[in-house]
Amino acid sequence: MTLDDLDHAILRALSANADQSTTQLAQKLGLSQPATWRRIRRLQDSGVIAGRRLVLDAEKVGFGVTVFLGVKLATKGRVSLEDFERAVGAIPEVQTVDHVLGLYDYRLRVVARDLADFERVLRRRIMTMPGVGDVEANVLLSEERRPGPI
Q1: What strands, in cross-sheet order, belong to the sheet with 106-112?
Q2: Where are the beta strands (DSSP E) in the chain?
């Protein structure tokens, strides 16, 4: 699917505020509401818009610590990547599981109530998983969300 300037404008506007109505969006873009709705539907049907999600403030819901973990699997032959992904994905504190290229095999984003809670998650849940080798933790100090290149 080829995206034109209007498609990009719709994507930028929805990225900034996915809650706005098609009427509000149409007014901003100078389109009719039905034309805007059809374009959004086409973007959804083609998979360009893969979904919408609710973004929570982790700290306000009780998770004051975010840690990025680099995980190197000890033996890739004994534990398949899919087995690791399935097991680590079942840990509720793990928000994202990224298979990466580099020093580590995976990058995990883990939230915890505090450092003691993170240590519990690390020791009891992550380090006890079969196949886990080296782990490096980086505690998030601050985060600035930047819009994408759309």
Answers
A1: 94-99, 106-112, 65-73, 132-139
A2: 65-73, 94-99, 106-112, 132-139
pLDDT at 83: 86
49-89, pLDDT tens digit by residue? 998 888 888 889 999 999 999 999 987 666 678 888 999 99
For residue 88, what are the CA distances in angstroms to 25, 58, 92, 148? Answer: 39, 20, 9, 28
Sorted by sequence, the CB contacts under 8 Å of residue 125 that are 6+ apart come out as 91, 93
Query: Could you tell me how far CA 25 lies from the centroid of its own chain?
Result: 25
Q: Is 146 helix (H, G, I), strand (E, B) or coil?
A: coil
Considering the entire predicted model, what is its pTM?
Answer: 0.77
